[in-house]
Design brief:
- By secondary structure, the protein is an alpha/beta fold.
- The protein folds into 2 domains: 3-210, Rossmann fold (3-Layer(aba) Sandwich); 229-342, Rossmann fold, CATH 3.40.50.40.
- Helices cover 26% and strands 22% of the residues.
- The chain contains 9 helices and 19 strands.
- It has helices at residues 47-50, 77-90, 106-116, 140-152, 240-247, 269-280, 302-310, 320-333, 336-343; strands at 3-9, 18-24, 31-33, 39-41, 59-66, 96-100, 124-127, 154-155, 158-159, 164-168, 171-174, 179-180, 189-190, 198-200, 204-206, 229-233, 254-259, 284-289, 313-314.
- The chain has a 9-stranded mixed beta sheet with strand order 1-5-2-6-7-10-11-14-15, with helices on both faces. The chain has a 4-stranded parallel beta sheet with strand order 16-17-18-19, sandwiched between helices. Strands 3-4 form a two-stranded antiparallel ribbon.
- The longest helix is centred in the first third of the chain and has 14 residues, at 77-90.
- The two termini are 35 Å apart.
- The model has no long low-confidence stretch (mean pLDDT 95).
- The protein binds aspartic acid (ASP).
- Aspartic acid (ASP) binds at residues 27-28, 71-73, 102-104, 128, 130.
- Residues 27-28, 71-73, 102-104, 128, 130 line the site of aspartic acid.
Length: 352
């Protein structure tokens, strides 16, 4: 991946109080019209002119931009690797990071980055916008300014939010708990199973009890992913051939079964037998609910008891975005049995 790098001191002539790195990957946020009316990526060297309020944050900002900004529908593990490496390599020189990313797959990337950086002790704040920064009613300006403020916020010399988050529409959410839930209005993200970490109003109110505490170890970077994963989304009337097709996908090592409600699935013998056969072939089957809130409780209903009995692993209250990225990373780091042991255990606050 190629980058350009620029430094902007928003504090001059005063002294900068913090250093924050912005990683610009693309998405709606940075789109602007050139003189001929064509949409082109925003020129970050003009950011002080676009956002005069930046001066009041007294920051030394380094912007690292992907040379080819991407719509986040085109994001891949290669991009996660690049973002993780940029954070890892610049970790000691920065107080925090803001990642500008398209909203469509932001929750996947934020989840991936949270698993890639064990022992993270500094803020990594993802944000973006529903309307380009060049538009008069754009949400880009507020999202960026507040993300920068959160990324540089300290209490008694320590970062207030030492974890991977998504900041959007006045709310700070844990990144691996968030989901995109809205494509037209500004309130694009929610974390149904975890409290909001901060609300931005007249001041930023941090929910200190919900924010993670760093482990104290030194930062590590895990940057390999194995894409041998798939998703089987259940629906009433799903056919045996559809189920078999997913479970027998060539090379697949783990399948997320997106179940109903508290982790329920059909009890029809053909369905149970298909799952059993997949497990005996060595496949990892993970039960993740289609509900954005609540959790999988295998055994609560008759329709999930069998799943537990045949060896389907409960995903608890994990999101689909966190589950798929966690599986991809675990499969690259460990063998099947190591992945099976770790998948049901919280790695970065993604599940209870
Ligand atoms: N399609 C865009 C993206 O995810 C949407 C956005 O940025 O909000 O890159």
């Amino acid at each position: 991946m190629n980058y350009t790098r620029i430094s902007i001191n928003t504090a001059t002539p005063a002294e900068a109080r913090s250093r924050v790195m912005i990683i610009y990957t693309g998405g709606t946020f940075g789109m602007t019209y050139d003189e001929t009316g064509v949409l082109i990526p925003f020129d970050f060297s003009l950011i002080k002119e676009q956002l005069p309020a930046l001066r009041n944050l007294f920051l030394e900002i380094t912007v690292v931009s992907f040379t080819q900004p991407v719509d986040s529908s085109n994001i891949s593990p290669e991009h996660w690797k690049a973002i993780g490496e940029i954070i890892f390599e610049n970790y000691n020189s920065q107080d925090g990071f803001v990642v500008l990313h398209g909203t469509d797959t932001m929750a996947f990337t934020a989840s991936a980055i949270s698993f890639m950086l064990p022992n993270l002790a500094k803020p990594v704040i993802f944000t973006g916008a529903q309307l380009p920064i060049s538009q008069p009613r754009s949400d880009a300006r507020e999202n960026l300014i507040t993300s920068l403020e959160i990324a540089s916020a300290k209490l008694n010399g320590k970062p207030i939010v030492p974890e991977v988050c998504i900041y959007f529409d006045y709310q700070l959410l844990r990144g691996n708990r968030a989901k995109k839930v809205e494509s037209m209005h500004f309130d694009a993200f929610e974390s149904g199973n975890y409290p909001v970490l901060a609300k931005a109003g007249v001041k930023i109110d941090y929910n200190v009890a919900a924010i993670s505490t760093p482990s104290g170890g030194s930062l590590k970077l895990l940057s390999r992913f194995d894409s041998a994963v798939s998703i089987l989304k259940l629906f009433p009337g799903i056919s045996p051939s559809m189920v078999e097709a997913v479970l027998n996908t060539k090379g697949v090592k783990a399948v997320i079964i997106e179940t109903f409600g508290a982790g329920n699935a059909p009890t029809a013998s053909w369905f149970v037998e298909s799952l059993k056969a997949a497990i005996s072939r060595g496949l990892i089957l993970l039960n993740v609910s289609q509900c954005p809130g609540g959790m999988v409780e295998q055994g609560r209903y008759e329709t999930s008891k069998t799943l537990a009995e045949i060896g389907v692993i409960s995903g608890g209250d994990i999101t689909l975005e966190a589950a798929i990225t966690k599986l991809m990373l675990l499969l690259a780091e460990f063998d099947i049995s190591g992945t099976r042991t770790k998948i049901g255990v919280s790695q970065a606050g993604e599940m209870a």
